[in-house]
Amino acid sequence: MQEDTKKTGTAKGYLPAELFLAFFKVGAFTIGGGYAMLPVIKQEVVDNKLWLGEEEFVDVLAVAQSSPGAVAVNSAVFIGYKLHGLSGAAFSLLGVILPSFLIILVIASIFAHYTENRIVATAFSGVRPAVAALIAAAVVKTGKPVFKKKQNFALAALFLSLSLGLGLHPILIILAGALLGIVLALREHRKEKGGGVQ
Amino acid sequence: MILLQLYAAFLKIGLFSIGGGYVMLPLIQKEIIEVRRWLTLTEFVDILAVAEMTPGPIAINSATYIGYRTAGFFGSLFATAGVITPSAVLMVLAAGLFARFYENRWVQAAFTGLRPAVVALITGAAVFVGRASLIDIPSVLIAAGALLLFTSTRLHPILILLLSALAGIITGFI
C-alpha cells in the first residue's frame, strides 16, 4: 500500500516498527474483538508507551467509534497517523490485523479437513445455539443504554419490522436511522430557535 | 472476477458497519449469504464461533475466513483488504484534516438516530441465526443456558462457547 512496509533492522527506536509491535500485541492478545480491545490499546499506547495522554485517547475513541469499521483497526490507523504520518498508519494497521489474519488462515486451512469428524461436528452443533445466544446477549447489552429513551424502543421496533418483515437491506436501515436522527434534531433545533435559545 | 467481488463486498460491509462489530452480521448475512451465496447460514455461524474464540477484531477474522473459504489465500487477502479500506482512508482523513467533524452537531444527531437502528439490526441477526441453530430440544436448552451465562455471569465468553461445545459433544454421543 504505502511507501515501504517492510520491517527493516531492529525495532528499537524506529517509531513505525514500535507502532507495529505495539498493535501486533493488541491484535494477538485480545480475544472477542471490539470493545474488549480498547483497554488493551489504552494500556499499550497511554500507559506503557506514553504516546498519547488520557484525554487525547478519549478523543481517539470518540472518532474511532463513530466511524465505519472495526474500532481497533480505526484506533490503530488514527494513532499511527497522528504519531508518524502515513507510514505510522500503515505499520499500525498491519500490526493490528496480522495476528488475526495469520491465525484464521491456519484455522481455516485445517478446519476444512475436520468438518466430517464426529467430535468436531457435534462440538459445532453445541456452539451454534451458543452463538445465537451470544448475539442475543449483544442485543441486551447495546439495547440497555439506547432504550433509556422510550421513543427509541418504538424506533427499534419499526426498524426491526422493516428489516425482518420487508427484508430491507441493512444499509438502508442504517441510512434511515442516521437520517431520522438528523430530522429529529432539526425539529428540536427549530423549536429551540423559536424559544429564543441559540 | 471473484477476488474483486470479494474486495467489493467486504468494502461495502466495512463501510456500513457503524456502531459496533455486530452490525456487520446483518450486512454479511445480506451480501455474502443471500446475494452472493458464497456461504450457507450454518457455515457462517461456525465462522462466527471461530471468530469469537480467536484473537483480534471480529471483522478481520470473518473477512479472512470467508475469503479463504471462497477463494483460498488470495480470497482472504482481498476480503481483508476490502473490510479495512474504509477504516484506513477515513481515519487518515480524520487524523489529518477534520477531527472536529465528529463533534459536529448533525453528525452527533445522525449517530443518535443510528443507535436504535443498530439494535434492531443486531436483533434481526439474532433471530436469523437462532432460526438456523435452534433446531431441536438440546440446541434450545444450550442456547437458553448460554444466554443466561452471557447476561448474568462474568464468565468469559470463550469459556461459555467451550462449555456449549462440550454440551454438544455429550448430547451428540448419547
Structural notes for this entry:
The complex is a heterodimer of chains A (198) and B (174). With 198 residues, chain A is mainly alpha-helical. Chain A has two domains: 15-111, no CATH class; 147-198, no CATH class. Chain A contains seven helices and no strands. In chain A, helix 1 runs antiparallel to helix 2 (38-48), helix 1 (15-29) crosses helix 4 and helix 3 crosses helix 4. The relative contact order of chain A is 0.08. Mean pLDDT of chain A is 84; it is low at 1-11. Chain B is mainly alpha-helical and 174 residues long. Chain B has a domain at 2-102. Helices cover 81% and strands 0% of the residues of chain B. Chain B has seven helices and no strands. In chain B, helix 1 runs antiparallel to helix 2, helix 3 crosses helix 4 (58-96) and helix 6 packs antiparallel against helix 7. The model of chain B has no long low-confidence stretch (mean pLDDT 89). The chains are: A mainly alpha (198), B mainly alpha (174).
Oligomerization: heterodimer
Order of helices and strands of chain B: HHHHHHH
- The span between the termini of chain A is 46 Å
Gap between N and C termini of chain B: 47 Å
Rg measurement of chain B, Å: 18 Å
- Give unreliable regions of chain B as ranges: none
Shape of chain A: flat
**Number of helices, where a helix is a run of at least 4 consecutive DSSP H or I residues of chain B:** 7
What key attributes describe this structure?
heterodimer; A: 198 residues; mainly alpha; 7 helices; 75% helix; 0% strand; B: 174 residues
Task: Explain briefly what this protein structure is.
The complex is a heterodimer of chains A (198) and B (174). Chain A has seven helices and no strands.
List the helices and strands and how they pair.
The complex is a heterodimer of chains A (198) and B (174).
Chain A: H1 15-29, H2 38-48, H3 54-65, H4 71-111, H5 118-146, H6 150-165, H7 170-194
Chain B: H1 2-16, H2 24-35, H3 41-53, H4 58-96, H5 105-133, H6 137-152, H7 157-173
Helix pairs in contact in B: 1-2, 1-4, 3-4, 6-7
